[in-house]
User: Fold this.
Amino acid sequence: MPEILIPSSLLPADGRFGCGPSRLRDAQLQAFASEGARLMGTSHRQAPVKNLVKRVQDGLLDLFHNPAGYEIVLGNGGSTAFWDVAAYSLVTRKAQNLVHGEFGAKFASALTNPWLDKPTVINGEPGSRLEMVAEDGVDSYAYAQNETSTGVVTPVKRVAGAHPDSLMFTDATSAAGGIDFDPLQTDVYYFAPQKNFASDGGLWFALMSPAAITRAEEIAASDRYIPEFLSIKTAIDNSRLNQTLNTPAIATLFLLGEQITWMNDNGGLGWAAARTKAASDHLYEWAEKSSFATPFVSNPEHRSQVVVTIDFDESVDAAAVAKTLRANGIVDVEPYRKLGRNQLRVATFAATDKHEVEQLTSAIDFVVEQLG
Assistant:
């Protein structure tokens, strides 16, 4: 039994608030048990699994507003694999990277290699956000729509004055499915599905513009060495056949398909974004009224609606709060491990209802009072 027992009336029905993997809805798991399990252990080259891939691709296009000529491309591995895919297969010569956290920095690192010019890195302090600027010689502009490590959001918008042939790369892993956007403002909107899409790892997805498809084909036809696993052209060709190069994570695909259908049936991306905003707004408002907490991201326009970071006053040990919450079944609210701040980090992904977040803040208030 935990040293501090939170009253059941203050506990959320589902205590999972982690930033990835995220909570899955019960309906997804029930559907997997009754339908998805039948696909496990079957060939991904046959109709049942290929139809599942097509269901996901069509559903994502609907969710992302069906931009003309764009395609849903998928491949093996997660976002980390996609950074290398982009380095080998999509950046022609030089990139500009906007960095305001751990994951934006990792993409910039992947683009620092012998066959590309050193990228220009616009590096902001964690918790803040700078802006990309048009630059001669840059053919690729890359940024994180939502920086999962810090809770900073960046709008999906093309760089004013950039060369018309340059491509925009949007790392949307923790934003996709939870923040609305204009797909025509980007060329490569890529993500892994274990956040708002309440799925699991093992695959990456990208909404790709006609210009990005053309760029991929041009680089594939050049003399650049590209490992097959990291070839976007190979991924495009397989995706058009509703398959991946190697066996995909079928459970991931099925859970993703269920979540996409749930979103589209309820009103699409605008509906999902309204849910995440309502939940995150409650957290920010609670922190601003609190005597011991404050939003880590000071500029309200830079605050994420899917990953909320809350700093605690030095008089309150956030680690002790998180430990007590975990002992009571409220898990994964610890801060990003490399940020090293006295804070909590809470995911408000689409599967999380505002009422659950209200229960969470009540539980935090109770624990802080007891620890005081």
Summary: The first strand starts at residue 71 and ends at 76.
